[in-house]
Amino acid sequence: MEKIKKLILKTLKWVGIFVASILFLMFIIPLLFPGTISEQVKIFANKRLAGKLDYKRTHLTFFRHFPSLTVSVDDLLLLGSKPFQQDTLLSAKEVAAGINLKNLIFDGEVKIDEIYVNDAYANVFVNSKGLANYNVYVSNPSKSSKDTAEKGTSVKLDLIKFRNWHIKYNDRPARILVDAKGLNYTGQGGLSEDIFDLKTDLEIDQLDFSLNRIWYAQQKYLHADLITRINTDALTFVLRKNELKINDLPLKFTGFVSILKDGYNLDIKAASEKTTIRDMISVLPPQYLDWAKDTKLEGKSDLFFSLKGQFSEPRNVKPKFTARLLVNDGVISSTKAPVPMNNLNVDLNIDFPSLDPEQLGLDLKKLSFDLGPKNSFLAVVKTKGLSQMNVNADIKGAVNLQTLDEALGLKDLEIRGLMNADVKANGIFSMDKKLFPKTNGYIDLKNGWLKTTSYPNPIKNINLTATIKNTDGTFSSLGVKLDPFKFDFEGNPVFVNADLQNFEDLLYKVRAKGVLNIGRIYQVFAKKGLNVTGLITADLSLNGRQSYATTGQYSKLDNKGTLILKNIKANTAYLPKTFYLKEGNFQFENEKMWFRKFYATYGKSDFSLNGHLLNTINYFIERKGTLRGNFAMHSNYILVDEFMALKNGDNDDKSIEVEYAKAENPKSSGVVIVPKNLDVSLEANAKKVEFKGLDIDQLHGMAAIKNGQIFLKNTILDIAGSRMNIDARYKDESPLTANFDVAVKVKDFNVQRAYKEIAMVRQLATSAKDVSGIVSLGYKLKGDFDANMNPIYPSLEGGGVVNLRDVAVKNIKMLSVIGDNVGADAFNNPDMKGVNIETHIKDNLIHIEEFTFKVSVLRPTISGTTSFNGLLDILVKIGLPPAGWIGVPVVVTGTQEKPKIKIFSRTGQGILKALYNRKTNDVIREERRDQKKSGREQRKEKRAQEKKAKKAEEQVNPN
Predict the structure, then answer these.
(1) What average pLDDT is seen over the chain?
(2) Domain residue ranges of the chain, discontinuous segments joined by +
(3) Which of 470, 552, 643, 861 is the most exposed place for a label (fewest CB within 10 A)?
(4) Which contiguous run of DSSP H or E holds residue 746?
(5) If DSSP codes are grouped into helix, strand and coil, which group holds residue 382?
(6) What is the pLDDT of residues 367-424, one digit of tens each?
């Protein structure tokens, strides 16, 4: 016993020494190597990261991620790569790197084999131009054998752990948004090997996913247990064991993903087999989950889908997607339902080759349920294609909507009525080819009732009988009847009766009468608190044929009646604010829709219209109709700035292009976007128009909106105290760019006032600051607007003549320098009255044709080139008495602020033109001084440039 006791004590002694040694080393190692590790990590980060990295403090310890020795960085912030240097790519409370002890102690090297990141936010972003913010890692250049032997920091990962992450991925070209909150991830394996198995455990508390602004997942819980074989040489990921759970729905994945030079190669299969309807419904949006908790859900479901093929945007290649959903013997019933929804069966197949909507195939082999005897529904629908869709459908059912409401246990919606439907269709639907499937069917609703929790009163007495018939598969035999469609709301009956025949040349007979309070009816369907108001009163009788209007047979039309709108608010996808139609009285007279009284406001701007629209019937009938009309428009004030697409406003229903442009250019105003479906002439009269601080008074002239462009013809306006005549054309290219042509004629233009009030004058005629008096001009220009609707000067082309009718010119530096060198003080105050100056603009250069003026007894003649940035390449010939026949040549180079002269020389120094890309609206290169060349070469190039500039002026056509 004594020996055993000694052995135990001896063992405990050595164990204690060993433990104490380990603890001692755990304390001492961080003290021995802090400089080595901190310095190596900094060097590694600086060499490998292109984005700015910042953090508060570092720690070297065994105890944060025991038993690993880790270097930890607190409050890390990593900014994105160009052009996102000011945006956060990653922020984290802690980032820790596990250090390989063996290499540290024996080799003095820092080898990182573990990564830990806690409480982090990652913002991964690809903008509309395809530029990404995550390109911050600088790849390691190839090294010689000598380099590879050097010591340093290296990464050979075996473990990655993320805790409590918020990841946001926004890919705007693909229109994908992923927002994952509460993400925890563990990845284990030989991550630095050429081929390794990555074991992944992933958990996300809340996952949101949208594609093209359609939410496919919101606030979903996700858990994944994955084993993925990764081949880093071939960049291939093989899905070996992949079990995923979205809320209560399990999914299993198999297949592989290979990364190609210009895309991906995919072969992925997924299945959720032998699950229940309740599991399937758990992946629906959150608003349906509360309903599911209180609802009896029984039945089996299966889901299969696959994605196979290559994805490459440059080669326009996309994979094939297929899916199948099966629901068998389903039962849905609320606790209060007298009759459940029984025998719910769904068999849906989706075939989506190349992700091409034109090849999309939907095969709903069965959708059926019943709500007791004589209360059943069955639908079989098969389609192929989109713009030319092959349709085979059979829909039949008789449903008591109140029974359906009670069976489903709908909380926010109360519906009643007897609905009966029987529709059969077989054939091709094509708007372009005017084909419609052979169809025979009807939908009948009697004594309908609709009430929501958003509004206390229902829409009641809804009665609808709609029939549709097509006998030969063309538009010409298609007939649709609504006889009748009527309902009561707030004590006001609404009645619509319609008989539509031959959609190839539509024969229509429509009667509509009633009063609608759209503010209140909107509340029936929408959330409370939204500011929607307005009243519509209709008493219309429309009777005619489509071709009567298009062929001018207006006497055969019998369209009459009135439509009165009051206090209506309306938004469009391309304007930041809301239009407020205070009053609109419309009268239909055969082919015309008259605006008898129309008054609207938009922000600070106001409009009143009198006139008519043509083609209103065609506009609502045709696939791509165009509204035509002629109006007189009056306005007290128009503020153009508030029509710019990216300005702040109350419109939340913007187009995705505007939404992305605004997010990526928060400080830009955008340009004005013109409707593409209008062909309207306007006699415009506006007392005041304001544009970017420029005041325009008493505007009067003819305007037109056509093909997405605005035209001004013989428009007269007051600007900077002068009467101006303008012809112009404007067209937007995107929310951020536009192009324009303009021709301007103005007499009695006060130079100093124009220089002070008009920014473009200060840019185009910088020397105008030294000129006072009255000028006249005729000028043509075309060019582009930038994202703040300022002209892009290198895009400008054109030219014209400025007549210095009654001016005084003093102290122009270029002339003063010449005067100082030739001993003629009169150059400081030359006589330029009545002189015509002709110039041509192209590539940010202004080419000046020869013009002559007086300086005492001298007759100087000026010609040459200057740039918007002030570079000079001017030839001045000083004509000597008696008649200026003998001239002294003087070359002026340098800049307008610091001119340089050479007397008795004709050889200046040319200016290389700016390079501008009209497709992308980018200035590739600004103008700059040319290399020194012979006088002959310079004169040849100058003549070529001037010829191109003059030709550009001739091509300017604002109409």
Answers:
(1) 84
(2) 17-136+156-233, 262-394, 917-954
(3) 552
(4) strand 737-750
(5) strand
(6) 999 998 889 999 999 999 999 999 999 999 999 999 999 888 887 889 999 999 999 9
